[in-house]
Amino acid sequence: MPNPSHNGISPVHHHPEYYLKDGNITFLVEDTLFRVHRHFFECESQFFVKEFAKAPLEGISDSSAFRLDKVTTADFAKFLWIWYSPSYRRESKPKDYWLVILDLSTTWQFPEMKKLAVDQLQSLDMEPVEKITTYDKYQIDKSLLLPAYKLLCKRAGRMSIEEGEQLKLHTVLGIQEARERAIRSAAEGGCRSPTSADAADEELDRILIDVFSLKGHAANPQSTQPKQDPAVPLIKTPKSNGGATNGNGTTKSSGSGSNDHNQKDANKNKTSGK
Asked: Which of 162, 166, 109, 159 is nearest to 138 (CA)?
């Protein structure tokens, strides 16, 4: 059911999943109200800390909802999913899903969320040109682009005009230089009519690391493999009445971890007392 007109403009709606009864801040995105937990936005994002300070009374109710522009209802829901889905590590989401999270976490200055998005993208298939332009746009560690650079060097034929227009000039020139060096290396190794694909993998890694100044990159086979269990921070759900609220508004007990810790302490005391 739509709510009455918001500020006399148009009817607004509660989001079916992310309008939580125990939420303590309301956001308006397009024509949809989200009521969630302010803590998430203040504990990591300096962007929201500053925005909340400018308007301390915004978001305390539906009628004074904190308005978010330049984001769609669907994309904001994707962003919130990270906090309100404890099973996010086990759920398989497509590339476009994580690109949204990468974009918003960068814009709103959520560094841990951004790390998570990058980690997930590393395990997904992306065309090399798209990956390079994306990582350049969001200023992501260039050493993670070694596999993409390598694919562009080893494939038959040069980049298309369209691909060249998407990449920065220094990237296009760097790929060309790496290809030429790889061909020379293959020729010196005794290959007749060599191509850049004929260079040894280790040598091509070394060339690319040198051309693109990939500092700190360990050129070994494992460094380019997708991570199966990314070492990203566990993004905790908020606590309410001793439990964590999930996306359905239900709660989960959060005491098991402390009980285990107390049991370990008790065992230690028993041992020391013998």
From this structure: 109
